[in-house]
Amino acid sequence: MKDETLCLHAGYEPKNGEPGVMPIVQSTTYRFDSTERIGEIFDHPTEACIYSRFANPTVDAVEKKIAALEGGVGAMCTSSGQAANLLSVLNLCQAGDSILCSSAIYGGTINLFAVTLQRFGIECIFVAPDATEAELDGAFRENTKCVFGETIANPALVVCDIEKFAKVAHKHGVPFLIDNTFATPVLCKPFAFGADIVTHSTTKYMDGHAVQGGGVIVDSGNFDWTTAEARKKFPDFTQPDKSYHGTVYTEEFGKAAYIVKARMQLMRDFGAYPAAHSAFLLNLGLESLAVRMPRYCENAQAVAELLAASDKVESVSYPGLAGDSQHALAEKYLGGRGSGVISFVIKGGKPRAVQFMDGLGLACNEVHVADIRSCVLHPASETHRQLTDEQLAAAGINPGLIRFSCGLENIEDIKADIEQALANVH
Ligand SMILES: *Cc1c(COP(=O)(O)O)cnc(C)c1O
Questions:
Q1: Opening angle at CA 159, ends 157 and 161, nearest 5
Q2: What share of the chain has pLDDT > 90, as a percent?
């Protein structure tokens, strides 16, 4: 089935007489006939929900829907995008390991990997998104356990060359993980280009309405954990898990080994699982995702063209613009579309940027992106203020950079708001 249909029907299939809309299962516990049955579920945790720290039927339905949209074998929702990215890496790495990461990623992820993971003893080696294959090869270490990128980097809007990163990762026997938040599976399905694991902040387009914060990890099922090389690098997948009565993930769960292991080890221990009500709200957003995404692209394209034509604007980054440095990659991976976010630099640096933002009437100043309403943010003084100047530069962020997230208001109203705010910038 196609995306529009999956958005509405995947994950929840009501049987005779059951509610047509996926119900909110607001219960922390599940009852069973016997202790023996509960024991069986512990042995076969994908058969039923036992406890809400890592499983709930409402969340489960949403996980199945997202897995279907990405074309994966399974998914696990988390309570935030940050938790999704953290757990996606911890499922592969332990103290003493390293990861290779494109420097063009979300600032929160940079901080998570460069500072917090470092404290866990996991080192993050950043590489330029346009590094050659030979340069990427050279950055690998013996202890490198995965490669990480972002389909459309927030807020630099650098498009990841997924095939290049996946190829080099596989050459070194490790999976390629990609944060697909800005593209969503509607604009890009990274598994089709060789990515092994996809993550999302569902707080953004997937929810779309700014009502729930969440994340998700999706497993393609394509990475083979049973090769001789993988058995050495990732013994936890093929050797009995002492913390889970000797389960061998690849033997019991086959292609879904990664995502079941993430749930049974990491979600069990960290408990960053969303509430059923959050999953219900996320599902409402997902139902219209495939219809909303093309309109975000259309509106943002018009805004990018308007900004590019203004003499008050120094530069515009939007992968959908024909002259953009990322357009060729956008053609390859996103059907030429640029999603809904535009980054641009106003002439005159930070003071003018602030003046422009404060002069907007319709688009609101908020720490959010990919909202259904237009909103605007100044990364250098807000989301990315923890980064050093070098890290800002590596992430592609100029101090005068503004991130404009195009909503689904009528495009004429969005344009009029931008035009009046630009006219008042002196
Ligand atoms: C927002 C965002 C995150 C973090 O997600 P939260 O839901 O805010 O924790 C991760 N990656 C990208 C690309 C994001 O835009």
A1: 160
A2: 86
